[in-house]
Design goal:
mainly alpha, two-stranded antiparallel sheet
Amino acid sequence: MKTAAIMRNYLVRIGLRLQKVIDFTYPLFRRFVPLQVYRYGACGASNIVFDWILYFLVYNFLFKERFFNLGLITLSPHIASLVLTFPISTFSGFLLQKYVTFTASDLRGRVQLGRYLIIVVANLIINYAGLKLFVDGLNFYPTPSKMIITIVTVICSYIGQKKFTFRMSQRGKEKEINSLSEP
């Protein structure tokens, strides 16, 4: 068996286990949101908390609130922290959404990843502009600024992922209906 197939099977198994954990608490929210939205929220919230903790640790302990000189440019500590943490939380978010939330999409993984990265670039621009505005322009603290900006990017991400990244054919929609009716 190829390494890629082994990795995919492993990720699918982990995704199914995470679905079971998330779906365990779903009955409390069943009348408020559909299962897919609940899974999206649970995965997204988990990834956001992961991102915030990672950002806090990198900002406070790696860059130690100091500017980071790259030779040609110097990054402020909040931007340097963003540059380091954004790819990590982006990849973990992609894996969660692909293997837990949008499992019925029949698009190839590389197509999904490419589309996901387009949404990511849009979110990176929003993050960068937001941090520049809040931290540099309005003198807010970096970590709460990042949290505020996250709300905007969550809304943009959900719309982009649902309508573009993990879009489904009719066959995928039928598969989704069957899988979501069995929590």
